[in-house]
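The authors assume throughout that readers already know how a fold can be written as discrete tokens. In essence, backbone conformation is discretised, so a fold becomes a row of integers matching the chain in length. A single example would do more here than another paragraph of explanation. For illustration, here is how one protein appears when written out as sequence plus structure tokens:

…
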Amino acid sequence: MILPRLGAVGLFCAGGIYWTDGDLGYFNRGAAPATSRDNVYLKDADPSNPRAFPALSPAVMAKFTPTLLISGTCDFALSLAVYAHSVLAAQGVQTDLYVREGLGHSLFIDRDVPQPLELYAIISRFFQTRPRGADANTRCGHT
């Protein structure tokens, strides 16, 4: 079964590599599972497999559709998002990176402060302006 190509992708508080592969691995030693094998969510994933960690492979990242990355200045995954944005841009993929001051990981949860509401609007606008369905396949160079 071949699935249709997505019109766009969002990576929020993430970056396509394991979180200790970025600055977190150095600055927060011991604060997070050291490797993906130690992480309950990723324990069965091969740490070298770009299907699990696409930013390991520029060739895989080159196949991404337009990508929105969002992180906060207090998010442990910020360096991962910046890295993924850099890899995508180097591969010619349309990519937008939004970093919001003072927000941490899971920055969408607290709806009592204005920043998450601003992010909802950014996400909505990003996806509303991207092609969907068959139009996405054609406009992204896939037939």
